[in-house]
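## retry 2 of 3
previous attempt timed out at serialization; input unchanged, resubmitting
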Amino acid sequence: MTEEKNGAVDERPKEKQRGPVVLRRDRKDELTTTDQRLLDSRGPTDWVHTDPWRVLRIQAEFVEGFGALAEVPSAVTVFGSARTGRDHPEYQIGRDLGAALAEAGFAAITGGGPGAMEAVNRGCSEAGGFSIGLGIELPFEQGLNPWVDLGVNFRYFFVRKTMFIKYSQAFICLPGGFGTLDELFEALTLVQTKKVTKFPVVLFGTEYWQGLYDWIQNSVLAGGKVGEKDLALLHLTDDIDDAVRVVKDAHKAWADAH
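## retry succeeded, writing output
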């Protein structure tokens, strides 16, 4: 795989992340992931003896994550599709958003992968900001993008999700797929149930997100499944300055309360 940074070409072999471990070339061709082996309870009963030891690995992931991110400054997590090409307009939006967050004094946290995540990390890094990537072990090779300044790789999704929430002041969702939707609704649930407070969720790209917003309003809200205050947790915008303003206002309100 060839990556280009600051005009220089960086030749890297294909790789796979297994938690903090990097597997390259033939070593990367594993058929299952750590998450899969944990959740798949079918097969011999030896899982009774191995699951307690997995708890120690899970504990270690939390310790490593907390240790690596403990001194991260105020940060914003940005989600978006790994499939966004570098020639797509959304890639440039990601770069501009990453730069704007850096200029506003926020570190930018992404899932550390390619596409929109790379764009945000790149924009933040190019603007002199703190660019962070929280990677995940997947069955297909991915690896952290070259614009990540601080990278942490996780085996378990639930550990990684904890880090996204704990070390962010806001979520901004660029157009994305199931992973983005998963993080979006997890954040909304935590805010709705007051597990986290003063935590704005911004949907960037009204053309992409308007249908989802309308469905929540016309079906979920209209059916009495959420309240008006729940719908107000979402902020739609096409303007980077507006998105950053929402983040700054919420962070100021949180700082004033503490």
